[in-house]
Write a structure and sequence with these properties.
The protein contains 15 helices and 2 strands. By secondary structure, it is an all-alpha fold. Strands 1-2 form a two-stranded antiparallel sheet. The protein is globular. The chain starts with a helix and ends with a helix.
């Protein structure tokens, strides 16, 4: 009877550290309420941005230029990053020194960060094109293909490995997206011609860009101890140049004729604000949440986008769409589950087993 009790005590000690014991490195001591706040904001930003962007692409009488909106987003992100860096450095003098050394004095770093700038510019423009041809809910579900794309880039570029459960969840996610696209849900309140294949092609390009650019930027961040906000400033400076070139290469004649801000309304401004603040805010709050919470956030954003699409655009949900969206939500949750760490439990069990053998002898 004593042996099972001994094993139970030892396993409980390994699983539940004593009060006051040191926490693992990197653990954040934040309240559950703050984590729920982060989760709520991330969910609302993701869902609202998708629905609002869709609305501006089908409801505006004078359709604005998507390329100019992407450019303005980069400008706002640059100013926000400079403001956060100013708070981080603590004084105007240190801010100017940091900018002079890391931005003006580092042309090679600017060139290095121009790679994700180009890729993100393409991704953002593809999002506008996709939401001009697909409903917000269909877009939100299909865009989750960025998870397997990012996983593949992580394996190839960062030499990481995925667990069997993660590979299974990736396969499930792809099956779910296939079901959603098999018989796309129809909208009844959109009086404009749409091309679902063009929309899906735009999402495919956006997904590839998202996976590559995210992993590339992570690799650059981990290659030095340079501040995240300095890296963001370097990237957004390159991004402004790249998007300006994109404006005048794709719609230059129309922009010169009608003006840079042609077709802009308060709704368009709201979309640009969400795109600017959402990306920066997400990069900050992810520090305080885990993968499971981010998975719930993505799944909740899908649900909210679907509800909003039904109410605003007359989305008619099909059985294949509902089943596909459910599979995607489940796969996101499974992908975010932490791996079971057996490196500490296995030696413990071996020790218990050896003690039992000695007792029997």
């Amino acid at each position: 009877m004593g042996q099972p009790l001994l094993r139970a005590r030892q396993i409980r000690r390994a699983a539940c550290p004593r009060p006051g014991a040191a926490r693992p490195a990197g653990a954040e001591n934040v309240s559950l309420l703050f984590k729920l706040y982060c989760l709520t904001v991330m969910t609302l930003v993701a869902a609202t941005y998708t629905v609002a962007l869709r609305y501006t692409r089908i409801a505006e009488t004078e359709l604005y230029f998507a390329t100019t909106a992407v450019c303005i987003t980069e400008v706002i992100k640059l100013f926000l990053s400079v403001g956060i860096l100013a708070k981080e450095t603590g004084s105007l003098g240190r801010l100017m020194t940091s900018l002079r050394e890391n931005v003006l004095g580092s042309p090679k770093e600017l060139l290095k960060l121009s790679v994700p700038s180009v890729v993100y510019a393409v991704q953002n423009n593809m999002a506008f094109l996709a939401l001009s041809n697909l409903d917000a809910a269909v877009y939100q579900v299909t865009y989750q293909l960025k998870i397997p794309c990012t996983a593949l880039c992580t394996v190839l570029m960062l030499n990481r490995s995925l667990s069997k459960l993660q590979w299974f969840s990736v396969f499930m996610l792809c099956c779910g997206v296939t079901l959603v696209q098999w018989k796309p849900a129809q909208v009844t309140k959109v009086q404009m011609e749409q091309n679902p294949w063009l929309g899906f092609g735009a999402i495919a390009i956006a997904v590839l860009c998202s996976g590559f650019a995210g992993v590339y930027f992570e690799k650059v961040l981990k290659s030095s101890d340079t501040s995240l906000w300095v890296r963001n400033i370097q990237m957004y400076l390159s991004g402004i140049v790249v998007t300006l070139v994109g404006v005048y290469m794709s719609e230059g004649a129309q922009v010169l004729e009608k003006g840079f801000f042609y077709g802009y309304t308060y709704y368009v401004g709201f979309v640009i604000l969400l795109a600017s603040v959402g990306g920066l805010y997400t990069s900050v709050v992810v520090k305080y949440t885990d993968n499971i919470m981010k998975g719930f956030s993505a799944a909740a954003a899908i649900v909210l986008s679907t509800v909003a699409s039904v109410m605003l655009f007359g989305l008619q949900i099909t059985v294949s769409f509902a089943l596909g969206a459910l599979l995607v939500c489940i796969s996101i949750y499974l992908y975010g589950l932490p791996r079971q760490d057996t490196t500490k439990i296995q030696p413990l069990l071996e020790t218990v087993s050896s003690k039992e053998k000695l007792i029997h002898m």
